[in-house]
Amino acid sequence: MDRLDALKVFCTVVESGGFSRAADKLGISTSSVTNQVAALEAHFGVKLLNRTTRSMSLTGEGRQCHAYAQRLLAEMGELEDSLQESAQQPRGVLRVDMPGILARRYVAPALPLFMERYPDITLRVTAGDRFIDMVEEGVDVLLRIGELPDSQLVARTLCRTQYVTCAAPSFIARHGVPQAPEQLGEFPCLNFLYPKSRQVRAWRFQQGGEAFSHTPQGKVAMDHVEALIAAAAQGAGIVQHLSVSLREPLRSGALVPLLQEWQADGPDVSVLYQRKHQRAAKVKAFVDFVGEVFAEPGGLRALR
């Protein structure tokens, strides 16, 4: 008797609610199912199922056996998947979730390169700012900005960020520049509005190794990062946001950094995946690729 096969048959009987249903599901004869369960009971020396012509129920030992068998079979399946995937070329459907600004500014522009490298991977990308349960929603890889939850997920830092205060050259030509955070109240400022709480986010600064907050009383506040940055690039006011969101307008000169001596560190950008998938070829391929995209210096330009 193959005990692993017998446990699989036993679990199928329990979950199907009967021997004939389990036989249909497994594609074997009912007598084979009956023999496998009987052999398992003989091996353990206990009765696992109470059976009559009309009903079937688990004994106490049967419930214990079923619980252990489920875990054992799940772990065996994960082991087989991991070993098989590690030896394969990257292929299959890969489900990824990330914040919208990372999708638009970084990942989407790099997709032609990824598809050229890995033609056998089919990507399914969702872009949003809510935290999701990877297992429940069937997601393979997450990209996140900020503090990570205490979980069993594997996390890899893609890049560090800073809070950058900046304005358009046209704005600076009209209004000048503040010399310290306390002077921001004298200038038109654009604030970020938290979508859920509708509260204005405090601006972050650092001096002499000590971080502090200061919130200018601007007339404009938005809950959309890219709209806020677009308004700043057109000269509407001074804005502060994360460097990962401001990289392109800063590089192009559409925005110019201000108060650089007070610049504070921001949260990390990270990629997360389940520990059991860390050897999967498709997951490793995507994680390594986004590592290149977010690498400093160069980013996507270095890939090209």
CATH H-level superfamily title of the largest domain = Periplasmic binding protein-like II
* Number of separate domains: 3
Strand content: 15-25%
CATH architecture of the largest domain: 3-Layer(aba) Sandwich
Helix/strand class: alpha/beta
Order of helices and strands: HHHEEHEHEHEEEHEEEEHEHEEEHH
Per CATH, what is the topology of the largest domain?
A: D-Maltodextrin-Binding Protein, domain 2
- Give the uncertain stretches in residue-range form: 297-304
- Count of discrete alpha- or pi-helical segments spanning 4 or more residues: 11
Per DSSP E runs of 2 or more residues, the count of β-strands stands at 15
What is the residue-mean pLDDT, rounded to a whole number? 86
Largest sheet: 6 strands, mixed
Instruction: Round the Cα radius of gyration to an integer and report it.
Output: 28 Å
Alpha-carbon distance between the two ends? 58 Å
Shape: elongated
Helix content: 40-55%
> What's the CATH first level of the largest domain?
Alpha Beta
In words, what does this structure look like?
The chain is an alpha/beta fold. It folds into three domains: 3-86, Winged helix-like DNA-binding domain superfamily/Winged helix DNA-binding domain (Arc Repressor Mutant, subunit A), CATH 1.10.10.10; 92-160 and 268-303, 3-Layer(aba) Sandwich (D-Maltodextrin-Binding Protein, domain 2), CATH 3.40.190.10; 162-265, Periplasmic binding protein-like II (D-Maltodextrin-Binding Protein, domain 2). The protein is 42% helix and 23% strand. It has helices at residues 3-16, 19-26, 30-44, 60-86, 100-117, 134-137, 169-175, 225-233, 243-252, 281-293, 300-303; strands at 49-51, 56-58, 92-98, 121-127, 141-145, 153-159, 162-167, 189-192, 203-207, 210-214, 220-222, 238-242, 256-258, 264-265, 269-274. The strands form four sheets. Strands 7, 8, 11, 12, 13 and 14 form a six-stranded mixed β-sheet that branches. Helix 1 crosses helix 2 (19-26), helix 1 (3-16) packs across helix 4 (60-86) and helix 5 (100-117) crosses helix 10. The longest helix is centred in the N-terminal third of the chain and has 27 residues, at 60-86.
